[in-house]
Amino acid sequence: MTSKHPLNKKRLLLGITGGIAAYKAAELARLLIQDNIEVQAVMTESACHFIGPTTLQALTGKPVYTQLWDESVSNSMAHIDLSRATDVILVAPASADFIAKIAHGLADDLLSTLCLARNCPLIVAPAMNRQMLENPATQRNLATLQQDDVTILGPAHGAQACGETGPGRMLEADELFKAIQHFFQPGRLQDQRVLITAGPTFEAIDAVRGITNLSSGKMGFAIAKAASEAGAEVTLISGPVCLAPPPVKKLIRITSATEMLAAVENESKHCDIFISVAAVADYRPAISHAQKLKKSDDHWTLALVPNPDILQYVANLPNPPFCVGFAAETNDIEKHATAKRRKKNLPLLVANLAQEAIGADENTLILFDDHGKHTLPRAPKITQARRLIEHIASLYQA
Ligand SMILES: Cc1cc2nc3c(=O)[nH]c(=O)nc-3n(C[C@H](O)[C@H](O)[C@H](O)COP(=O)(O)O)c2cc1C
C-alpha cells in the first residue's frame, strides 16, 4: 500500500457511501482514471448494497477496500496508509449518516476512520432525500464540516430516486470531475512564500493589564487560508486571537509589537510577498511592570513610546518582498489610504472602514494600487480574502 505512483501523478481516494447515487461513482472513477488521476476506492458496507466493489476494482485497476479489519493489509494499518497515499479524499456520494459521522469525528468503519486520520483535504458530495438534507441535524452537520474546512460540492436540486423533487441530488459525475480538475490545477500563488501578520498586539502595562485593540484576526486568518488555497507556502504571525488555526505551513503566535517585529525580521528574509494585516498597537507603555500595580486614589499618567513600524521595516529592506499594507480608517478613507501608500511606497494598500470591519464577519475592501482604486463590495471575509489574493497574484505576476 506504499505509494509507488509516478511522480506528479495525482492521487485521489474515492470514498463511496450507501446511497442510490453510488452508481454515479463508477462513471466518476472512469473519468478520473481517463484523466490520468490515480484512484483508490474505499466503500462503506452500505455502499456495497448499491454497487459492487468489483465494478470499482475493474475501473480503477486496484483492490477496493471496505473493511477496517482487513487481514490482507500487511500491517493492518489501512486507515492510516490509505490516507497518507493520497492527495485528496473525495466522498461521493456522501450519505446523511456519513456526514453526521465525520462532523462528529466518529471512526467506526474504514472510510470514516481514514477521514479522521487524514492529512490531506477532504471533499464531500452529499446525496440524499430532500427531507434528510433539510433536517436541522444534517444542516448542523454540514455547517460543522464547512467550519472544519471540508469542501462541500452540491447537492443539486431535481428529481430524486424516492420520487420526490427538491434539493439533495448528488452532482453529476462530470460536474464532480470538473471540480476535481480545478482542485488539482496549480494555484495562482503556487509555491510562492507568503508572510502574513494578523490580529491585534497586546502591550503590557503590568502583569495583568495592557493596551490592545478590537482586531479579531478574522481578515488576516481568511487571507492566510485563501493564500494557502492558491498554492502559497504561508507563514502566519498572529497576535492574541480566539480563532482556529488556518491551514498554513507555519503559525507563529506572538503577543506584543516588539515580538511581532522580531518574528517578521526572521521570516521576511525568506518571503516573496508580505501582507501586513495585523492591527499593531502604535504605542506601548514606556515601562512594563512585572508585578500588578496597586490601585490608589491618585491620578495615574501612563507614559507611552512609539512601537516600531513593521510594514515600513519590510518595505525598506534592500530587496523587499511585494508588500501589501492594510489601513483601517474611521473617516476620509481615500485620503488616509493614499497618503499611507505613498509614504510607505507600497505597490498595494487595502483600506476598510474600521467601524464596519473590526470583529465583523463581512466587510468592504477598497484597494489602491498604481492603476487606481478598486472596490470589493461587501461580502464575507473569506470571499474578500480570495478576491484580494487574486488581485495580489495579478499585480505580482505582472
Ligand atoms: C434503498 C435505499 C436508498 C438509500 N439512499 C440514501 C441516500 O441517497 N442518501 C442517504 O444519505 N442515505 C440513503 N439511504 C440510507 C443509508 O444507506 C443508511 O443511512 C446507511 O446507514 C448509510 O451507511 P453509510 O453512511 O455507512 O454508507 C438509503 C437506504 C436505502 C435502503
Characterization of this structure:
- There is one protein chain.
- The protein is α/β, with parallel strands linked by helices and 398 residues long.
- It folds into 2 domains: 11-184, Flavin prenyltransferase-like (Rossmann fold); 193-283 and 304-397, CoaB-like (Rossmann fold, 3-Layer(aba) Sandwich), CATH 3.40.50.
- 35% of the residues lie in helices and 24% in strands.
- The protein is built from 15 helices and 19 strands.
- It has helices spanning 22-34, 47-50, 53-60, 78-84, 96-103, 110-116, 130-134, 136-147, 173-184, 218-229, 257-267, 310-315, 333-344, 354-357, 381-397; strands spanning 11-16, 38-43, 88-94, 122-126, 151-152, 156-159, 165-169, 193-198, 203-204, 210-211, 233-238, 250-253, 273-276, 283-285, 304-306, 322-329, 348-353, 362-369, 372-380.
- An 8-stranded mixed sheet has the order 12-11-8-13-16-17-18-19, sandwiched between helices.
- Helix 1 (22-34) runs parallel beside helix 3, helix 5 crosses helix 8 (136-147) and helix 10 (218-229) packs across helix 15 (381-397).
- The relative contact order is 0.09.
- The mean pLDDT is 93.
- Flavin mononucleotide binds next to helix 5.
- Flavin mononucleotide is lined by residues 17-21, 44, 46-47, 95-98, 127-128, 132.
- Residues 189-394 form the DNA/pantothenate metabolism flavoprotein C-terminal domain.
- Residues 10-179 form the Flavoprotein domain.
- CTP binds at residues 282, 292, 308-311, 326, 340, 344.
- In the N-terminal section; belongs to the HFCD (homo-oligomeric flavin containing Cys decarboxylase) superfamily.
